[in-house]
Structure formats: structure tokens, C-alpha cells
Amino acid sequence: MQYYFLALYFQDGYGWSPLQAGMAFLLPTLVCTFGIRIAERMLRRRSPRQVLAWGFAAGAIGIAAVALAMPHGASYWPLLPGIVVLSIGQGMSWTAMWIVAGQGVPGPQQGVASGMAATAQQIGFGTSPRRRSSPRSASSASRKRPRGCA
Q1: CA 121, CA 1: separation in Å to the nearest integer?
Q2: At what angle do helices 48-69 and 26-43 cross, to 10 degrees?
Q3: What single string gives the DSSP state of each residue in 58-109?
Q4: Given a cut of 80, is residue 99 above it in pLDDT?
Q5: Which terminal residue of the chain, N or C, has fewer Cβ atoms less than 10 Å from its own Cβ?
């Protein structure tokens, strides 16, 4: 979800083209792969719950760093440290999340479990911006009432 908002920020805030904004995600994609490798190693010694916790913590720290750098950053570079930490956290979280989604599911039904988890993830991502913007739209619409309306 945060990558959606970052893409909008790059295009609207920096005036980048969609291609330039997309290119800005090449490094985070590579770093996310590194996060997956970290999670693989951690899962040998720790439970998926612990790896999820570490991944969520890294993601929260990363997005906080990005948020703090946004108002001050005149370029992509001040955002990069936060994006790197965020991407590591996402790689760790996603790896553990898919493991948890398939735990306890018999082998022949692993595809169904994975499909249900992916569908739930995509539906959540697809509806989140609409849910977040709806209250704002409703509140701004109520402020723009014509005179004489209650």
C-alpha cells in the first residue's frame, strides 16, 4: 500500500513521469529480495511469528523514516534510508506471512490456502484507499452544501 502512495508522491510531489516513478522502485525491489533472504535464515532458528514481528518492526521504522524525510526531502535520496529499511521489513514479513498462511493445511490443499491468502491480500489493498478517502469525501461534501440546506 505504501508503494502506491510513494508512487503518487514521486509523480505529484517531484513531477516525475510514471516511468521515472517506476524506476525509483528498482532498488527497493532488490532490497526486498535481501529481506526475503534474511527471513529464510531467521526461520531456521525462530518461529514465523517472531520473524513477522521483526519484519513488521522494520517496516514500521522504515515507513516512519520515510514520513519524517518527506517534508524535508527535495529529492529521492533523503527518502532512501527509510525505503531500504521498509523494503527489508516487507521481504521478511511477506516470507513469514505466506508460511503462516499454509501452516496446518494438508498438501493437496496448499494451493487453495495460498490462493485465499493472496485474494484476501489483494482485496485488502484494493479497498483500502477507497475506505480511507470516503470519510474525507463525505466530510468535504457536507461542508460544500448550498445555502439554506440543513
Answers
A1: 10
A2: 150
A3: HHHHHHHHHHHHTTT-SSSGGGHHHHHHHHHHHHHHHHHHHHHHHTT--GGG
A4: yes
A5: C
Q: How many residues make up the chain in this entry?
A: 150
Nearest CA-CA partner of 59 in 97, 24, 7, 21: 97
Contacts 24+ apart (CB under 8 A), 3-7: 3/28, 4/125, 4/129, 6/66, 6/79, 6/83
Contacts of 86 (CB under 8 A, 6+ apart): 2, 28, 58, 59, 61, 62, 63, 65, 66
Question: pLDDT, tens digit, for every residue of 109-136?
Answer: 988 988 888 888 788 766 665 555 544 4
DSSP state of 9: I
Nearest to 57 by CA among 96, 32, 92: 92
Contact between 89 and 57 (Cβ < 8 Å) = yes
- How many Cβ atoms from other residues are within 10 Å of residue 78's Cβ? 16
